[in-house]
Amino acid sequence: MERDPNSRSESRAAARPRPCTGALDEEAEKVRRLYAEKDYLDAYSEHTDLRVAKDPHTAVGGMWDRLGTLQFEYLRDAGLAPHRSLLDIGCGTLRAGRHFIRYLDANRYTGIDIAPAAIAYARDVVRGESLAEKNPRLVLCSDKALNFCELQRQTFDYILAHSVFTHLMPQHIEECFSHIGTVMKVETQFFFTFSMADEYMSDGFKNFSYPEHIFYELAQRHSLVVREPRNIYEHPRHQRMLLLTRCPPDAQSGNRCDSER
Ligand SMILES: C[S@@+](CC[C@H](N)C(=O)[O-])C[C@H]1O[C@@H](n2cnc3c(N)ncnc32)[C@H](O)[C@@H]1O
What we know:
- This protein is α/β, with parallel strands linked by helices.
- It has two domains: 8-59, no CATH class; 62-253, Vaccinia Virus protein VP39 (Rossmann fold), CATH 3.40.50.
- 38% of the residues lie in helices and 19% in strands.
- It has nine helices and nine strands.
- Strands 1, 2, 3, 4, 5, 6, 7, 8 and 9 form a nine-stranded mixed beta sheet that branches.
- Strand 2, helix 6 (116-128) and strand 3 form a beta-alpha-beta unit.
- The longest helix has 17 residues, at 21-37.
- The structure holds S-adenosylmethionine.
- S-adenosylmethionine binds at residues 45, 48, 60-61, 89-92, 95-96, 112-115, 118, 141, 144, 146, 162-164, 167-168, 172.
């Protein structure tokens, strides 16, 4: 795991006594068994919960301050204004969510996640940072499907999935693309990050990389449009950002809904 020297939580973690090798082996074996015995998303959410119990900041990838601010500033520069609504898919422990909640008007932030401990910690962050009056909606997707049923067709101005597709397999991303239209208006902007590779690759239990064309093809299959966003996303571990929008109704009927590359 890459370390952020400026993060207070990470220096606290570094100062903690390290478990002895036997305990590390036991932990690694527990994680290995999780992924071997359970359905991927069940294993991944349990693994996230174990990581949240240890350190809620590194559980979502670390660089708590830097990556939280980076996401927030990126969306604000892309036009997110306080009166706009935001859906944060895979909000985790609110690394970025706490910045969005503070900035947005009340009732404008919705975060969804599949990991119960991440959502529980997110609720603590809201209380601890005196953000309760903003009334953010934090939703646990207990069935782990990316079909947005819990949101009951509520639509959003902006949607973000940051460091989420980096941990999902192709079938999960396809599920997301096939249902995301139910929570999008015609003008909704959905920003998502991914790790780029020449071909689909998995690394370890929960890291997946994709060639960019996969997203263009998926979008086309689901009447969506992918494009490079106007601003480059300067992610320290080189995740790429793409922008997904709906195909305008007139373009759909005229079959002119091409993603721009
Ligand atoms: C690496 S963390 C990133 C958290 C946050 N987006 C950020 O960048 O600060 C990935 C999060 O996505 C969540 N997640 C993964 N698959 C999901 C799914 N299918 N639906 C909702 N959340 C999901 C995980 O539980 C985890 O909290």
